[in-house]
TrEMBL record:
Pfam families: DUF3037 (PF11236). This is DUF3037 domain-containing protein. The lineage of its organism: Bacteria, Pseudomonadati, Acidobacteriota, Terriglobia, Terriglobales. InterPro entries: DUF3037 (IPR021398).
Length: 127
């Protein structure tokens, strides 16, 4: 039997010109403490980003996304942040920043299947 568990998620955004407030959603970060799940699903449409912001440093965007994925999985190559608990890593990833990569406010809900939820949120908010 599947039981409901609470979850938190945030949308990962590319914000090339912070002062303008324009952004494109590129991914979702999901935490479900009860199911011990922290994951991200990210895809950057480089052609779309280049069309809107030709000067954007896509290498930096790719590096940031790779770091998000490594932090979510607890990969030690991501540095000391990756050694924190899942909850601490999620809160570190979703803390407000004034950089090109930002997250939305954190939202909450109930779920039974974390992988399916991550896919659904990704398709609704990014895809």
């Amino acid at each position: 039997m599947h039981t409901n568990a609470s979850f938190d998620y945030a949308v990962l955004r590319v914000v090339p010109r912070v002062e303008r407030g324009e952004f494109i959603n590129v991914g979702v970060i999901l935490l479900c403490r009860e199911k011990r799940f922290l994951g991200a699903k990210v895809h950057v449409d480089e052609q779309r980003l280049r069309a809107l912001w030709p000067q954007l440093d896509l290498d930096a965007i790719r590096e940031h996304i790779e770091a998000v994925n490594r932090i979510c999985t607890g990969d030690e190559s991501a540095g000391p942040i990756a050694k924190l608990s899942q909850s601490e890593r999620f809160h570190w990833l979703t803390s407000p920043r004034s950089t090109v990569m930002q997250t939305s406010p954190v939202h909450t809900g109930l779920c039974t299947e974390t992988e399916a939820l991550l896919d659904r949120l990704y398709h609704q908010l990014v895809g």
